[in-house]
Amino acid sequence: MKLNTITNSYIVKEMLAPFSINLLVFTFLFLMTEMIEITDWIVNYNLNLFTVFKIIFFTLPWFLMFIIPMSVMMAVLLTFLRMSNDNEIVALKSCGLSVYRLLPPVLAFALFGCMLTAFITLYGVPQSKTALEKMAIQLAASHADIGLKERTFNDAFDDVMLYVNKIDTQNKKLIDIFIEDKRQKDIVSTVIAPEGRLFSEPENFTFHLLLSNGTIHQTNPKDRSATSIQFDTYKLSLDFNKEIESYDESDKHREAMSISELRQYMENRAGKEGKDQDYYKAKIVMHRRFSIPIACLAMGLIAFPLGIQSKNAKRSFGLVLCLFFFLLYYLLLTIGYGFGEDGIYPPEIGMWVPNVVMGGIGLFMLIQTGRERSLMIDFFARRLQRLAALINPFRRAS
User: Fold this and answer.
1) pTM of the entire structure?
2) Could you list the residue range(s) of the whole structural domain that residue 221 is in?
């Protein structure tokens, strides 16, 4: 009993270091994919570093939702890979400990990852998404050019539609502008200008469009009248206060909703008209918040036998197999998301099938390892090495 306790404690401690390192490395890699956009915010939109760090902080939970299961998998694999190469697994077996007796610390560690991921999906992601939505409104008011997108109809303001063909961020100029203004009663104004500039008043949540050399077309459907006015300069003021004041809990994105809010949202969407795509998307979000944490258990179950049986194979091959299984899980999850979103099959199936498949693979590998049967890792590693040796001469020749 004492040996079991010592062994379990030892294995858990051994997994903590690779887990922490992998968590930091994968988080850094995910953030690197956003570096171009982050640099764009700093250089072109003059956002201060504190604001940028806040944005990064609020986006981290979304990344961690996928990073934690992968880090759990890599931690289990690397721990047992090292123990196998150092013949510690052989020593433990000689002391009467079977493979199944080494499983409890793995399950406990995977359960820790499961709870950590569940906290992220149930609380971290909704809270950070809500904070990002509010922050986006504040930023759009103080840095209006962030909210504008090229070749997109921007309808952030009541009764005003804005279209910009091109945004020159260096010179702060808007090129080829189209505006439809319905703020005047019974009059629709269409403003077309080849260029303009954007000026903000952050303290008043207001910004102004200063347009040059354009035309205003006004129509009155009631009077059946129309007028056209050409201008050298025209100033259009837009108040963002209404957007800030009108934001409430009902405006939440699905990712920002709690479980109870998602259920209420689905009840509202599944009305007399039947279930629509928004209903299925909300159901996917709800089931994903529970299915992704459970993936930690499935990933740990796969990595455990992989680490034990990769002793004679190259260390990198075990890592490649680990990465392959994670990508397979992510592929199944993506397929499930796509089909579930369109209602081809129930969203819950799309979100839980990847766990069932990966858990089944892990269970099969565990049973094979427990029976001292090979997973043929060495066989496949040797075949890949021979294939690489055959390809190398052709690479050199080219």
Assistant:
1) 0.75
2) 147-246
